[in-house]
Amino acid sequence: MSFKNKVVLITGGSAGIGAATAKQFAKEGASIAIVGRNEAGLKAVAQRCDQHGSKTLVIKADVADDAQVKIIVEKTIKEFGRLDILVNNAAVLKNTTLTSPDVMETYDEVININLRAVIHLTSLAAPHLIKTKGNIINISSILGKTYVQTPQLMMYCLSKAALNHFSRGVALELAASGIRVNIVSPGPVRTHMLATLDNNKKVDDHVEPTALRRISEPEEVADVILFLASDKAKGVTGSDYCVDNGVLIKF
Ligand SMILES: NC(=O)c1ccc[n+]([C@@H]2O[C@H](COP(=O)([O-])OP(=O)(O)OC[C@H]3O[C@@H](n4cnc5c(N)ncnc54)[C@H](O)[C@@H]3O)[C@@H](O)[C@H]2O)c1
């Protein structure tokens, strides 16, 4: 899978799945713009990407801030002159309950980052993707389909369910322009996010709902993202690939 001469924009690229995805694209020859709030983390990832001879642009930005989202696209186009692949990966996980005093605050934060920012960035990136007949990968979660014993994650789950529906709608709208839009829905992946999912559990405890009795590494999710972004998947759009070690087959 070669991504030579392709430009990839990845949000949440300083850690976890986003960082692994940036490195895999770099290995395959892509130029990359990585976005996040943690500049030191982004620079460390960029350094690793550049070791493969790729050109990596670090963009420190909060995707929940409209003005900063505009700058993300402007900087990417100014640096590389084109955009081929958008990976909407940044997200947050926040616990709340319906009767908690912070319920609406949590709703605003989670929806702004996990959904609104994706819609905004996608709308600004779309004209550039239309020019290159590019494609979009949205990182959702199996929690967008079922609760897997996590009622306190209601806002996260609904943000991902809405993201799934948005993704299919965009796939339909942009198909006329030759653009593919796909979803990757991970189950448990060994990242900071999984470590904060449940204070009462260790990361390895999340093996429990999986049929394969294992937790994915971020690189495994990146592999599926690269496949969907590649010409090998030229007939795939509006699809939702689960990398969940078989959690969903048990529900
Ligand atoms: N780790 C898992 O088990 C798991 C499971 C299912 C889905 N996911 C999804 O995978 C994606 C990546 O998560 P991860 O596990 O790598 O988590 P992570 O916490 O390691 O990474 C999330 C990234 O998003 C960035 N981010 C968060 N809010 C941001 C904002 N407002 N502006 C810019 N960047 C922001 C963070 O800085 C971080 O780099 C997310 O969409 C997440 O919902 C993860």
Automatic annotation (TrEMBL):
Residues 6-189 form the Ketoreductase domain. Coiled coil: none annotated. Pfam families: adh_short_C2 (PF13561). InterPro entries: KR_dom (IPR057326), NAD(P)-bd_dom_sf (IPR036291), SDR_fam (IPR002347). It comes from the Eukaryota. This is Uncharacterized protein LOC111360478. It comes from Spodoptera litura. The lineage of its organism: Eukaryota, Metazoa, Ecdysozoa, Arthropoda, Hexapoda.
